[in-house]
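Predict the structure of Aspartate/glutamate racemase family protein.
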Amino acid sequence: MTILKGGKGIYGASVGILMLDATFPRIPGDIGNALTWDFPVQYRLVRGASPDKIVRSDARELADLFIREAEDLVASGVDGITTNCGFLSLIQDQVAEAVQVPVATSSLMQVPMIQPLLPSSKRVGVITISKSTLTDEHLKAANVSLDTPVIGTEGGREFTSGILDSHPEIDFEACRLDMIDAGREMIEKHPDVGAIVLECTNMVPYAADVRKATGLPVYSIYSFISWFQSGLAPKRFPLELDDPLFL
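Done. Here is the predicted structure for Aspartate/glutamate racemase family protein.
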């Protein structure tokens, strides 16, 4: 007899994603496009939390909105929570304390994970959607060293303005060029950088372009949440004792 334990409303989607209140187009690779993921996810839109408010203001002022939707996701059956903005590192502790499941608010949390993988002469660099508003507090909340090299896309053609101002149409080729420019600027200004973390969850579609332009490993919310999911729902490998390899 096989007895299964209930208690959830929805099964098979371990990761819950808190989405900012925006309607710009999202291509595959973007955290908000469900085709990005190799596993099912659940989404909740946090009404009133626009990209502009989170990136250009203090996200902590809206923490209650995120906690409410996170609690709803947990009630729906998810086993872990993430968000679609790296600037939400500011509310990591608040959300984790409120929902009592693992929480990974920000791609920036990968920086201290990646640093030990590099030679002592190298360090991790960050590409962000808004260098001017990525403060020491955001970095501290993600346990990121304050001397971490940071390059922003604010001066680019499309990426920052298209997302933060929630344009109804976005030139994604211009965004790709902005990301390549940011990657090249990183290695030109900081030749000691040995790996790059993309702060913004909308940067994932261009990770391969940044990797090609810089020659460096590139980590993003996609790499982070794929790892996160692997712990929430570990893959089961069947043990075939009659396999010739075991004979």
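The beta strands are 15-19, 41-45, 80-83, 103-104, 123-128, 150-152, 193-198, 218-219.
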